[in-house]
Amino acid sequence: MKKLxxxxxxxxxxxxxxxALAETEQKTLQATIDMNGAFALKCYxxxxxxxxxxxxxGGTYVASISHATDSSKPAMMLSxxxxxxxxxxxxxxxxxxxxxxxxxxxxxxxxxxxxxxxETHLGTKMMVVKDMTDTTDYVDFFTIYKGYEMExxxxxxxxxxxxxxxxDEEIEMAVQFxxxxxxxxxx
Length: 187
What we know:
- The chain has helices at residues 2-25, 97-108, 168-179, and strands spanning 27-34, 40-46, 49-57, 60-67, 75-82, 113-119, 125-131, 138-145, 148-155, 182-184.
- It is an alpha+beta fold.
């Protein structure tokens, strides 16, 4: 009986390792972004995606992330900017419900939305703002790290002309991408 339990445990561990390796093969470390010496953001991209038009614009780091060969795949827009009002905030996790509601209200002014929360694998809280109109044109992911506002917008079509909705699988791909972000102290 002990051998059977040991064999079952070994198989479970082996399957876990194979699964982890398969997931790792589908992601590529694209770059490490140094945010003015405050921290470094490591970005692992989904298979086939590349960073384009990356750089600083007026103190804000901006980049677009899109599929290299398939324009029907959704794209992501990234912006990171320091906010003096949030200078004392280490992470979105540090805000109380009232402060989170104020941030959510800034998104609610624009469209009919649904606000939920998710966490990265490192425990960083993300606000997930989903467009709830007839077609889900975008999902906005927002977080704070060391006073920097970080916003990732997933869009179905960069031109805004397709009129098609984001699928649950496309939204999950973005959630997984953001869950794998790593924040490192710059030394």
